[in-house]
Amino acid sequence: MNGLTLQDVVLTYPDGDRRLTTLDRVSLHAAPGTLTAVVGPSGSGKSSLLAVAATLLRPDSGRVLVAGRDTAGLSPRQATELRRDRIGIVFQQPNLLASLTALEQLQAMAHLRGVSAKAGLPRAERLLASVGLTDGRQHRRPHQLSGGERQRVNIARALFAEPAVLLVDEPTSALDHDRGARIVDLLAAVTRDHDTATVMVTHDRGFAARADRTLELTDGRLS
Ligand code: ADP
Ligand code: MG
C-alpha cells in the first residue's frame, strides 16, 4: 500500500525501573493525497507517533511502512536515505538556518541531494511561490519573516524532495487563529497538489475540521 501505514505500533520509554507505554497498538493508514489530523492533548504521544512514522524512533513492536516499504529491516543508512527521499518532516520547532534566505534554505536541500544550489534554484523558486512567498520575501532571512511565513518556508522545504509522506508537528502552535487556519488550508492544498500522505498532529481541535479526517490520540491510543 502506498502512503503511510502503521500496524499495531507499540512504543515504550524507560521510566525508572519500568517502561512507560507511549504508543499503545497504534494502527493507521494515510493514503496519498489525503490530510489526516491527529488530535490529542499535550503528552498524549503525538510527537512520538511522528518520530516512529519518520523512522527516527524504532517501535518496540508493530510495523511501519513508508510508500509500501517495510522499514523494520533497514540499516541506519537505508533509513536515512528513506527519510531523505520519501519523507518530508515539518518539526514543531522551526529549524531554519538563521543566516540563509528562504531561497537558500531550499537550495541547501538540493545540495544535500548532490545537486548544485544553482540547479536547484528553479524548483526552490517554484515551491516558495506555491506557498505564497513571492514579491522579494523569498530573499529574506528567517528573522525578517513572520511566524506564518517561516512555517511556509518549512513546508516548502519539506516538499523539496517530492516526498510520498509529509509529517507535520503542531504547525499552528506559534500562530494566531487566522494564520493557523491558513497554514492548515495550505497543508490541505499541498497534500492534493503533491499527492502526499500527510499526517498533521495538533492539540487544537478547531483546525482539525479542515483535514480530510480526524483521529484522536488519548494516552497513546488512537481512535
Ligand atoms: P505530545 O507530542 O502529544 O505532547 P510526546 O510524544 O512528546 O507527546 O510524549 C508522550 C509521552 O512520552 C509523555 O508522557 C512524555 O513525557 C513521554 N516522552 C516523550 N519523549 C520521551 C523520552 N525521550 N524519554 C522518556 N519519555 C518521553
Ligand atoms: Mg509534541
From TrEMBL:
Alphabetical list of PROSITE patterns matching this protein: ABC_TRANSPORTER_1, ABC_TRANSPORTER_2
Recorded superkingdom: Bacteria
Any single Pfam family the record assigns to this protein: ABC_tran
InterPro entries membership: AAA+_ATPase, ABC_transporter-like_ATP-bd, ABC_transporter-like_CS, ABC_transpr_LolD-like, MacB-like_ATP-bd, P-loop_NTPase
Domain ABC transporter: 4-223
Key word ATP-binding present: yes
Keywords, ordered alphabetically: ATP-binding, Nucleotide-binding, Transport
GO MF: ATP binding
PANTHER family named in the record: ABC TRANSPORTER RELATED, IMPORT ATP-BINDING PROTEIN
Protein name from the UniProt record: ABC transporter ATP-binding protein
Annotated organism of origin: Streptacidiphilus cavernicola
